[in-house]
Amino acid sequence: DTGVSQDPRHKITKRGQNVTFRCDPISEHNRLYWYRQTLGQGPEFLTYFQNEAQLEKSRLLSDRFSAERPKGSFSTLEIQRTEQGDSAMYLCASSLDGGSRSGNTIYFGEGSWLTVV
Amino acid sequence: AQSVTQLGSHVSVSEGALVLLRCNYSSSVPPYLFWYVQYPNQGLQLLLKYTSAATLVKGINGFEAEFKKSETSFHLTKPSAHMSDAAEYFCAVIGGSSTLTFGKGTMLLVSP
Predict the structure, then answer these.
(1) In this predicted model, what pLDDT tens digit does every residue of A70-88 receive, in sequence order?
(2) Within an 8 Å CB–CB cutoff, is residue B98 touching chain A?
(3) How many CB atoms neighbour CB B47 within 10 A?
(4) A8 CA to chain B: closest CA distance, Å?
(5) Cβ within 8 Å, pair B43-A109
(6) Is the per-residue pLDDT at A102 higher than 70?
(7) How far is the alpha carbon of B74 from chain A, nearest alpha carbon, in Å?
(8) Which SS3 state, helix, strand or coil, does residue A86 take?
(9) How many angstroms from the chain centroid is the CA of residue A47?
(10) Chain B hits for A108, Cβ within 8 Å
(11) Phi/psi-derived region of residue B86, left when phi > 0, alpha when psi is between -120 and 50, beta in every other case
């Protein structure tokens, strides 16, 4: 069990550029979540997948954001035409089926820091 | 609908003193409740969770929390603070949703 892995850990980009983050969940976990965390705030839910199906999206996930999990394993989160307000830490998490409502723990990665200049 | 309120953005204690971090929740259905800890530049680590079994929950690193339905609270305590406990602590709830809703966090500062 190597835990949830995220790449890159840090990304600095110019406003208007596109960025992509990758998340590798714990191998047997079929649920994968994306959260965003800004300074001084708790993590905010963006979206989650059950295997390859994207089951829920937050209102925070504007049309510039897209997440995929093509084979039900790793996931990518792409932000197009980045804005300064996108600067945040993007956290990926995973869990067994049913998520925490079934008592299963949601495990978080170490996050990907995005700075838009 | 579900939400969490953490009272106090910063809590300062001396090493060896009692730690008390407050969390109140709102949920339209019986909730599951969690405490996570975040060290600088790291992700979140689960400390403990309440999933409708025993109301007093013990977690890692000597932390525990008690679910009190009448007070809609889930406060986190530790009898004796250690310097290594300095971190940010997040309370989270799952109520009617399938996903965690977090509070804004409480930074715990431990002085020698």
Answers:
(1) 988 999 999 999 999 999 9
(2) yes
(3) 23
(4) 13
(5) yes
(6) no
(7) 17
(8) helix
(9) 8
(10) 36, 43-45
(11) beta
Beta carbons of A48 and B98 less than 8 Å apart = yes
pLDDT band per the 50, 70, 90 thresholds, residue B51: confident
Note whether A97 contacts B: Cβ–Cβ < 8 A.
no
Q: In this structure, are strands B19-27 and B2-7 parallel, antiparallel, or unpaired?
A: antiparallel
Interface with A, mutate which of B21, B100, B102, B104 (most A CBs under 10 A): B100
For residues B42-56, give the mean pLDDT. 89
- Which stretch of A83-92, B3-12, B64-73, B88-97 has the lowest confidence by average pLDDT? B88-97
**A10 against A28, higher pLDDT:** A10
- Strands A112-116 and A10-13, by their bridges, are parallel
Q: Which residues in A lie closer than 8 A to residue B99 (C-beta atoms)?
A: 33, 45, 48, 56, 99
Q: Could you tell me the sign of the dihedral formed by the alpha carbons of B53, B58, B59, B60, in that order?
A: negative
Greatest Cα pair distance in chain A: 42
- Give, for A10, the enclosing helix (H) or strand (E): strand A10-13
Of B42, B49, B102, which is closest to A110 when you measure between CB atoms? B42
Gap from B69 CA to chain A (nearest CA, Å)? 18
Residue-wise pLDDT tens digits, B88-104:
999 999 876 778 899 99
Rounded-to-integer distance, Cα B71 and Cα B87, Å: 26
